[in-house]
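Exercise 4. Each item below gives a protein and its sequence. For each, produce the structure-token representation.

Item: Phenylacetate--CoA ligase (Candidatus Segetimicrobium genomatis).
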Amino acid sequence: MLRKDALPAVQAQAPPFGGLLGAPAGSLRRIYVSPGPIYDPEPRGADAWGVAPALHAAGFRSGDIALVTFAFHLTPAGHMMDGALDVLGCVTVPGGAGNTEVQARALADLGAAGIIGTPSFVLSLLERTAALGLRAAVEVACVSGEYLTAAQRQRAREEFGVRVSQAYATADVGLVAYECPAAQGLHVADRVAVELLDPETRGEVPAGGAGEVVVSLLDSPYGLLRLGTGDLAAWAPGACPCGRTAPRLAGILGRVGDAVKIRGLFVHPREADGVVLTVPGVVRYQIVVTRPGPLDEARVRLVLRPGLDPAAVCAAVAAAVQGRLRLRMTAEAVPEQGIPEGAPRIHDARQWG
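Answer:
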């Protein structure tokens, strides 16, 4: 089994794809740079990431205008969705990340029927549209990249009239599983084989038990066989009312590896080390992730060498994190005892409910 957390090192030993690409790099359509860094190849062809079934199940239909709020640079999520929408005959509005007010106005002005993004940003965009006094025509949303809570799904339906469905995809593999309208688990996509394995023994977990999602990609020149995603899940029991016979994941329950997903982007401790610890004066650090409202918030706590200007070092760290990890974080200096020796580099303090 190849752990996703190990991919940066594997690729570094045999650049750029770790010897796992079964085709010339020149035959690819795109190459993405995901956090790690991990280089993700996209082969040529329609719906190369296999996401179209997830969007169709979510309610996207030919002729629909769909706003995609995933990034369209470096990482593949935006292009994943665009390729699937093209196959379905939909019209893509490539909104990307941020620019909430601009996207809210576009959502209303264009009469978009669907929206795609992380659960937190989709809800924030619907809130902003309403706050601006604009009327949106959105009926369906497909979300990914974050945990979707029952409260978020209910709020989208009751306050905004939007039916929300989930897709589970990774930047390496593409679509792994997706919800049907029954929303009783995520159906494993036909393009992959999925196992749930004990993270320690690597044996299959018993029925009802949680295990690491291990994926083998069946239709790509990228040889990812038994890729350990680091995500924990369990199998959903029984048959789905929709009639699909594919096995279903009961949902993503947590993480196994050291990497933590913040606002839809993975942050690897080793990568964070290469950013924060290269700023002069930083002795130790810890990234703390919280969710006091609908969006993730992250701050970098720093232990500094004596005699430095804390404000200047904090500003340098915040700028480095935004430039290289592509995330906005506040930075703050703390006493030496504030971060004990051996403390985890990333502390996920989010509460999901």
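Check: The longest helix spans residues 310-324.
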